Amino acid sequence: NAGVTQTPKFQVLKTGQSMTLQCAQDMNHEYMSWYRQDPGMGLRLIHYSVGAGITDQGEVPNGYNVSRSTTEDFPLRLLSAAPSQTSVYFCASRRFGAFTGHVGTEAFFGQGTRLTVV
Amino acid sequence: AQSVTQLGSHVSVSEGALVLLRCNYSSSVPPYLFWYVQYPNQGLQLLLKYTSAATLVKGINGFEAEFKKSETSFHLTKPSAHMSDAAEYFCAVRTSAGGKLIFGQGTELSVKP
After folding, report:
1. Fewest C-beta in 10 Å: which of A108, B10, B30, B66?
2. Which of A40, A45, A106 is nearest residue B34 as measured by Cβ atoms?
3. What is the pLDDT of residues A64-89, one digit of tens each?
4. What is the largest CA-CA distance in chain A?
5. Residues B47/B59, Cβ–Cβ less than 8 Å
């Protein structure tokens, strides 16, 4: 049971380049989300998904796209990287309480992707 | 909308001293509350959670937190700090089983020998 797996762990991009951050979970969790972590700002929600085929915007969605074609995978795409997107990105997953009856279930986090845009 | 405020971006204690990390939340409905810990270059790990059962919640590594509705607080404590407790701690709130998880700004805990 690997939990939440993020790849790559580190990435350097040039301004304007595109890339996809991968996130996969093997816990059959309905709910998946992406956060970015910046010093002094905690974790801010970028996008989230409550199930395959359903995505929605979080607090800071601009410059990022997501899709959810399977329960297991939730990739985050940067279409044209900017230096302001330099950050550490975390993917998280959990049960979705409304469907499973599990309330208050915690999120499981990946190890993070450290992205630098130059 | 819900929000979380962690008082103090950096807390320093001596080994063996009490650890107190403060968290206040804002929510119009009963919240679910969480404390996560992040060790250097690691992801976030759940310490404990409050889900409207007991107001005093015990977590891993000797940490506990008390939900105080009248003060809208969920402070994290540990009676005796250990060097291995040095990490960043995040308080988070969610208002429903399907709701978004909102984080505080984080508090970095340093433990002096």
Report:
1. B10
2. A106
3. 999 999 999 999 999 999 999 999 99
4. 45
5. yes
How is residue B81 written in tokens? Answer: 């700090």
User: Which residues partner with B22 through β-bridges?
Assistant: B7
CA distance B64 to B62: 7
Say which of A43, A97, A111 has its CB closest to residue B90: A43
Q: Which has more confidence, A60 or B50? A: A60
Residues recorded for chain B:
113
Task: Return the residue in A36, A106, A109 with the most chain B beta carbons within 10 A, the one to mutate for interface testing.
Answer: A106
Non-local CB neighbours of A15 within 8 Å, separated by 6+ positions: A81, A82, A83, A117, A118
CB-side exposure of A94: number of CA atoms within 13 Å?
A: 23
* CB-closest option in B36, B97, B104 to A103: B97
Q: How buried is A3 (Cβ within 10 angstroms: 0-12 exposed, 13-18 middle, 19+ buried)? A: middle
For A31-63, how does the pLDDT look when each residue is reduced to its tens digit (9 = 90+)?
A: 999 999 998 888 999 999 989 999 999 999 999
Cα B90 to Cα A54, A63, A76, B47, B96: the distances in Å are: 28, 26, 23, 10, 19
Q: Please give the backbone phi and psi of residue B58, each rounded to the nearest 5 degrees, phi first.
A: -100, 140
Query: Which of 25-44 (A) contact B at CB < 8 A?
Result: 31, 33, 35, 40-44
CA dihedral for A101, A69, A88, A10, sign (positive or negative): positive
Contact at 8 Å (CB) between A10 and A20? no
